[in-house]
Design a protein that fits this description.
By secondary structure, this protein is mainly alpha-helical. The chain has one domain (2-194). It contains nine helices and no strands. The longest helix is centred in the last third of the chain and has 32 residues, at 131-162. It starts with a helix and ends in an 18-residue tail after the last helix. The chain crosses the membrane at residues 35-54, 61-80, 100-121, 142-161, 167-191. Keywords: Membrane, Transmembrane, Transmembrane helix. It comes from Actinokineospora fastidiosa. InterPro entries: UCP010219. This is DUF3159 domain-containing protein.
């Protein structure tokens, strides 16, 4: 199930796209005598190239433009404040916001993992009418809350506060695809163990048809 979940969510591509521009920013900042201008320009240029490439290869417009906008916003913040670590501030805030959104979605019984997977599979809200799937998606979504967003938020906050561009760059790599892969695998395990042995799987919600 972990492979199918990874394929459905497209985790690797999104994680790599989000990682390359910040890494370029950190490397250019270190090599260009701590020039925020050069670093910001290089990060934006790389983000633009990735956006054009993804757009030409069938990437979703919202995801492509969102990634580009995040890099541009980070660059503008860093240029405005004159502090290189502020380039990573947008990513810190986005992880805090994402963690809160995922937690709230679980509490109101609309776990975002189910929303995302259900949308990809064209199920709309049918999965919510399957009590087993609803429970499984809820439990698996907590893996994303704590295993990804909370962990990232804490690490990025500490490194941003310390102003360590080198370690922020390293963390950007370590907490991108490697972490996403672990979270995908862990959430797939939770899904599999939560669903009954006779459940047909994510693609086939068991929706009871009310009797006439």
């Amino acid at each position: 199930m972990s492979d199918s979940l990874a394929d459905l969510l497209g985790g690797r591509r999104g994680a790599l796209d989000a990682t390359v521009p910040p890494v370029v920013f950190g490397l250019v900042w270190l090599l260009a005598n701590h020039s925020i201008g050069w670093a910001a320009g290089a990060a934006c240029a790389v983000a633009l190239v990735i956006a054009v490439w993804r757009g030409c290869t069938g990437g979703k417009a919202t995801a492509v433009l969102g990634s580009l906008a995040a890099v541009a916003a980070g660059a503008l913040v860093a240029l405005y404040t004159g502090r290189a670590q502020d380039f990573f501030l947008i990513r810190l805030l986005s992880n805090v916001g994402s963690g809160l959104a995922w937690a709230v979605s679980i509490l109101i019984r609309w776990p975002l993992l189910g929303v995302v997977v259900g949308t990809v599979l064209g199920q709309k809200a049918r999965w919510r009418r399957d009590p087993d799937l609803l429970r499984a998606y809820g439990r698996a979504s907590w893996v994303w809350v704590f295993g990804q967003y909370t962990l990232r938020s804490v690490v990025f906050a500490l490194l941003w506060w310390s102003g360590s561009i080198w370690w922020l760059t390293v963390a950007q790599i370590a907490l991108s695809w490697p972490l996403v892969a672990l979270v995908l695998a862990a959430s797939a395990i939770v899904l599999r163990r939560t669903l009954p042995a006779d459940h047909p799987g994510l693609r086939h919600p068991r929706v009871e048809v009310p009797a006439d």
